[in-house]
From TrEMBL:
<dbReference type="InterPro" id="IPR032675">
    <property type="entry name" value="LRR_dom_sf"/>
</dbReference>
<protein>
    <recommendedName>
        <fullName>non-specific serine/threonine protein kinase</fullName>
        <ecNumber>2.7.11.1</ecNumber>
    </recommendedName>
</protein>
<feature type="binding site">
    <location>
        <position position="639"/>
    </location>
    <ligand>
        <name>ATP</name>
    </ligand>
</feature>
<dbReference type="Pfam" id="PF07714">
    <property type="entry name" value="PK_Tyr_Ser-Thr"/>
</dbReference>
<keyword id="KW-0472">Membrane</keyword>
<dbReference type="GO" id="GO:0004713">
    <property type="term" value="F:protein tyrosine kinase activity"/>
</dbReference>
<feature type="transmembrane region" description="Helical">
    <location>
        <begin position="550"/>
        <end position="571"/>
    </location>
</feature>
<dbReference type="InterPro" id="IPR025875">
    <property type="entry name" value="Leu-rich_rpt_4"/>
</dbReference>
<feature type="domain" description="Protein kinase">
    <location>
        <begin position="611"/>
        <end position="739"/>
    </location>
</feature>
<keyword id="KW-0547">Nucleotide-binding</keyword>
<dbReference type="InterPro" id="IPR020635">
    <property type="entry name" value="Tyr_kinase_cat_dom"/>
</dbReference>
<dbReference type="InterPro" id="IPR001245">
    <property type="entry name" value="Ser-Thr/Tyr_kinase_cat_dom"/>
</dbReference>
<dbReference type="GO" id="GO:0005524">
    <property type="term" value="F:ATP binding"/>
</dbReference>
<keyword id="KW-0433">Leucine-rich repeat</keyword>
<dbReference type="InterPro" id="IPR001611">
    <property type="entry name" value="Leu-rich_rpt"/>
</dbReference>
<dbReference type="InterPro" id="IPR017441">
    <property type="entry name" value="Protein_kinase_ATP_BS"/>
</dbReference>
<dbReference type="InterPro" id="IPR024788">
    <property type="entry name" value="Malectin-like_Carb-bd_dom"/>
</dbReference>
Length: 739
């Protein structure tokens, strides 16, 4: 077997090409070729960028665009595509010989997610490329100091790939490409901070493709560039626009014996109507074969440590055209590792054949592909070009587009500048915007915003009407700001809580809001506003309605006594002969729930959820943890503190109130609680892969790499740290913190 590359400086740290038969003369030839390229690039190219091309020089501070000196493509400054981040220049020692786009970059030291938003056409297929040149811009030599330098990329709301700069030449450029379908009128590219190095980006390039190209790409499936190679005698290290009108990067392939390049000036045509890949004719006019004494060639793309080789799914595309002027037989089999993909294939003379398995992704941990000569073939295999992609699932749904537009109008109206208000408001869940609550209950529908909490956010001016257009909004808290003027007619049938307390509102209250409040359909809170100096009503008081209080004080005890009598009779009839352990806990339910947004469970509901507390999954200082299943099928872990310890649990309710407000990707979400005089419980999301001890110990089914263990340690530290900081900031008076 022979490998297909002897590049001196690879640009993709997660894909390495095996090196074989690379002589000193080959290296010298490529050095001379690169020098020739550098000389020829002094020739200025002046042409217009093709329609739909968006090219962004990240960190470029000039206000006007410029044309790239090699391709002629126009590059724009990035200021109108991104919020936040810092503009930087690479170190002076790396400036010489760098492309214009690699001389500057934008870094994002703040925030866990920072996103670029690029305009697009809904449903259009695009190729998007991001490039990264560190260039020691911060003077810290982060790529060479031995520490992990790793951050992530999201395409929209879905994970795309990680960027690993660890032990990387600071002058080299890494690029990532993805082919995807625009879900809306914009495509977002987000840089994710893993806590192991500041994310940055040098350039972003968006290129529209024809709808018929790469037919296996759709709204649910995108493909990430793994390798794209042109064979034959190539003078350029990278072939791109204008030879390729879609500006795809085709890597040249140096060769030495027994590899033999073939080139032709004859036309190589595609079949009429074949627009699936549109490989440029100039690339198909070159090919590589072997000396006739050899029978097979092997393309081996190494999978770096940054990728999960066991679960890697690859899609290879082979491009062939017989360009040998003579007409002897050439037939060969095509393998993925040891799996036969195509048997007895013979390339057509001067006609393009693109071979793939209709979008089928292959399990090939070694990323090895082989072309083997058949017995009746007179010539060894030949190949003109090769593309290899990995699967990117687009499973996460974006927030409802109307909700996105309206919350962005709110952001613009009040000039809000929150660090984590970047990217999609609700998706993915771990990066949802602080202060928003979203509804994910309908798995096949886009998440909706159901609660907005902008209390104490420094809001000034009038109330924006954008809120009234959010048809799923249930809770709107704009209290403790400096809002002025009248109250808009928020005719949202879904709205249940409208908290405008402690502002400077003095206008009239719309009749529709008053009617909903008086009917008990809306909890209206206006205390602390000038309007309450003119109006004396329950919504202007922070106390409960007196009439309601009296009614509750009279009716509730009567009802409860009646219920207790009936329950006592039923209890004696039904539980006669039962042990004291089976007493009815319903009579011990607390009457007053906490005013928080999470669900309150009754003891009876916990019994149903846990199948009468059958499945114990853990024990701890709090009590026993049971496995349960909610009505919608979601699995939960129910932590129960039984009555033997309840007398000592005076801090239970304060902890529930605090935990209900804590939202962090490294903390398990609290779904609800049970407040019963005989039983207190917390209901959390269920973590199906067991506890941390089991995961670290490993087993036959799964074992962690050291890199994954490091991430776990970092995440484990960030969760409690966030919890401590959040609790400290939420305390008005002296607080005692558990750490």
């Amino acid at each position: 077997p022979f490998a297909v590359s002897c590049f001196q400086k690879l640009h993709k740290p997660d894909r390495t090409m095996a090196i074989s038969h690379c002589s000193a003369s080959t290296k010298l030839a490529w050095i001379l070729a690169l020098l020739l390229i550098l000389v020829t690039t002094t020739i200025q190219v002046h042409c217009q960028s093709p329609p739909g091309f968006i090219s962004i020089d990240c960190g470029f501070t000039n206000t006007s665009a410029y044309n790239d000196s090699i391709t002629g493509i126009q590059f724009d400054p990035d200021s109108r595509f991104v919020e936040g981040g810092l503009s930087n220049k690479i170190s002076a020692e790396f400036i010489a010989g760098s492309d214009e786009q690699q001389k500057t970059l934008r870094s994002f030291p703040n925030g866990s997610r920072n996103c670029y938003t690029l305009p697009s056409t809904t449903g259009t297929k695009y190729m998007l490329r991001a490039t990264f040149t560190y260039g020691n811009y911060d003077g810290l030599n982060k790529t060479r100091d031995g520490s992990l330098f790793l951050f992530g990329l999201h395409i929209g709301v879905n994970f795309w790939e990680a960027v690993n700069m660890t032990n990387w030449d600071p002058s080299s450029t890494i690029w990532k490409e993805i082919i995807t379908v625009a879900p809306a009128n914009s495509v977002s590219v987000c840089l994710i901070n893993f806590g192991s190095g500041t994310p940055f980006v040098s350039a972003l390039e968006l290129r529209p493709l024809q709808d018929l190209m790469y037919p296996f790409v759709n709204t649910s499936v995108s493909i990430s560039y793994f390798r794209r190679i042109r064979f034959g005698a190539a003078t350029d290290f990278i072939t791109r626009f204008s030879l390729d009108p879609y500006d795809r990067f085709w890597e040249g392939w140096p060769f030495t014996y027994p590899w033999i390049p073939l080139n032709t000036s004859s036309r190589v045509r595609r079949l009429p109507g074949d627009n699936t890949f549109q490989v440029p004719e100039g690339i198909l006019q070159g090919a590589t074969t072997l000396d006739t004494n050899y029978s097979f060639l092997e393309i081996s793309v190494g999978v770096g440590p940054n990728l999960d080789a066991k679960n890697l799914q690859l899609l290879p595309i082979f491009h062939f055209a017989e360009i040998n002027s003579s007409n002897p037989s050439r037939r060969f089999d095509i393998y993925s590792n040891d799996e036969l993909l195509f048997a007895d294939f013979s390339p057509s003379r001067f006609q393009a054949d693109s071979m793939h398995q209709n979008g089928r992704f292959l399990h090939n941990p070694t990323a090895t592909f082989r072309l083997s000569k058949t017995r009746r073939s007179r010539l060894p295999p030949l190949i003109n070009a090769f593309e290899l992609y990995s699967l990117v699932r687009m499973d996460n749904l974006t927030t409802d587009s109307d909700d996105v537009n309206y919350i962005k109008e709110v952001t613009k109206h009040y000039n809000l500048a929150r660090i984590n208000w970047n990217g999609d408001p609700c998706s993915p869940r771990e990066y949802s915007w602080e202060g928003l609550t979203c509804d994910y209950s309908k798995s096949n529908q886009n998440p909706r915003i159901v609660a907005v909490n902008l209390s104490t956010s420094g809001l000034k001016g009038g109330l924006v009407i954008s809120f009234m257009n959010m048809v799923s909004l249930e809770n709107l808290d704009l209290s403790h700001n400096n809002l002025t003027g009248a109250i808009p007619d928020y005719q949202i049938k879904s709205l249940k809580v409208l908290d405008l307390s402690y502002n400077q509102l003095d206008g009239p209250i719309p009749d529709s809001i008053l009617q909903r409040s008086q009917a008990g359909l809306l909890d209206l809170r206006l205390e602390g506003n000038p309007i309450c100096s003119k109006v004396k009503d329950t919504y202007c008081s922070n106390k409960k309605k007196k009439t309601s209080t009296v009614l509750i004080a009279v009716i509730v005890p009567v009802v409860l006594v009646s219920l207790l009598v009936v329950m006592g009779i039923l209890w004696k009839l039904y539980w006669k002969g039962k042990s004291g352990d089976d007493e009815d806990y319903a009579m011990y339910e607390e009457e007053t729930p906490l005013h928080i947004d999470i669900r309150r469970f009754t003891y009876a509901e916990l019994k149903l959820i846990t199948n009468n507390f059958q499945s114990i999954i853990g024990k701890g200082g709090f009590g026993i943890v049971y496995h349960g299943t909610l009505e919608n099928g979601d699995e939960v872990a129910v932590k129960v503190l039984m009555e033997t310890s309840i007398a000592e649990s005076t801090d239970f309710l304060p902890e529930v109130q605090t935990l209900s407000k804590v939202h962090h990707k490294n903390l398990v979400t609290l779904q609800g609680y049970c407040q019963n005089k005989k039983c207190l419980a917390l209901v959390y999301d269920f973590m199906p892969r067991g506890n941390l001890q089991q995961l670290l110990k490993g087993g036959d089914d799964y074992s962690l790499t050291w890199e994954q263990r490091l991430y776990i340690a970092l995440d484990a530290a960030q969760g409690p740290n966030f919890n401590y900081v959040f609790t400290f900031k939420s305390c008005t008076y002296v607080c005692i913190h558990k750490v």
